[in-house]
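As promised in the previous annual report, we have extended the structural survey to additional targets. Below is the entry for histidine kinase.
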Amino acid sequence: MFRPLLIGTFGAVLALTLACAGLAWWTASVAVFQMERTRHVHEVLHGHLHLESEADRLLQAATAAALGDEQLGFGPGHARATIRAQFANIRRHITAEIAMLPQNLAEREELDDLAALEQLSHGFVQRLEDAASLSAAGRMEEARAQLRIVVQGGLGTEFRNAVHAAVDREREDAIAAEREAERMTAAPARLARLMAALAVLVAVIAAAVLIRRLQRPLDQLAGAAEAVTGGDFSRRVTGVPTKGELGRVVRSFNTMLDEVARSRAALQSSHAALEQAVEARTAELAAANEALQRSDQARRRFLADASHELRTPLTVIRGEAEVALRGADKPVADYRHALGRVAEEAAHTARLVDDLLFVARSEAGEARSARHPVALDEVVQGAVSAARTLGAPRGIRVGSNALPRRVVVQGDADRLRQLVLILLDNAVRYSDAGGEVVVELQMLQEQVRLVVADDGIGIAPEDLERVFERFHRGADAAARHDGGSGLGLPLARAIARAHGGEVRLENRTGRGTVALVELPAAHPLQAVA
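The corresponding structure token record, generated without further manual editing, is:
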């Protein structure tokens, strides 16, 4: 039904398109040929114009010199070289024209005319060069007599007139070449436009016929498809001839709708039941998986941290015990010293385990809760006093600006004191000898801010957040100080967050670091050890 029409239309349009393409290619070739020929013609004309200008100049100069108005200005060979170059250029372009149009006898005659003109120029230029040679030898009267022969004898005028005639011929040739180029390209262009219009006409007629035959069936198909999209599977396409390609499409479409309606009803029923079961099971699995991941991560990190930090104190305890047990009996003082070291390391180990548990529980959200009012100004003042003792051996001054009174927060006093001491210990540890550490306590609207500023080595920008990772130490800190476990700042952040606050570090302008702790005033404690 539609296939023959489509094939015929496509064949006609394709044939016209190929014809247009071939014509366009031929037109382009002709245009290129004519442009090249026109270029050679214009180059020949320009060469003759240069010869005309040179002939006029030489004849005027010879006339003036023959009359004695000017000195002779001809150098031997100058005029001949200039004119010879112009003749060579003209001959090259005429030869190119002959190669493009070998059957054109007029171009060959043009070469003969050029040879005659060149011969005439040789006699004219030779006389001028003879006069120039006489002038150079100081024989001025003989030189002027020679020039008068050239001027009055008609040789110069004959050469100039011959050049003028050649210029007129070449100008006519240039005009004729341009007209020929226009004529050769105009006809193919008109034919190409005609064929393009014919192709458009065929396409428009074929499109109109197709639209007329397809419009009603396609409208019905589109309406049925829109109804199905809206959920109405009872719509069917009717009133369309059952013959031809479109009839087969309509029959297949109606059959498909019947099958889809039956399948959709069964699918909706099973999907509803399955969706309920999957949602319930997915929620259970997600909750269980999240809890398991939190527990496993906390366990792994705690085991890794404990193994990392407990190795050194346990080694010391074992070493002291082995020393006490090795060899013969020892004095009581030696046993007391060994037991004292064991007790000291055991206490350090207990504190370390307590800190590790606090950090792990805080990160896992499983820490125990406790809260009571704490005078933060008193905690800070006590920590400053302890830090002065740490900084005294290296002459580091630890001072506090005027602290506000009765700054109360809800929290654990021991943990808050530990938080302040960690920041002060870091500030003193990484300050140069003779440096200064300043502590401030600021009251904001609903927060309390603790500021610890030092003029020490500072922290690289890329390490400002990484120093809060457990056991990470910045490159500058590790290079200058061997001590430190890398657990202080992570513990400080855990304490601050357990109290509903935060800790961050900033580099000071110039040198040093500022530690900022922000805690909510009277905020309930979230996690303590």
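Residues 523-529 have pLDDT under 50 and may be disordered. The two ends are 87 Å apart (CA to CA). These points will be discussed at the next consortium meeting with the crystallography subgroup.
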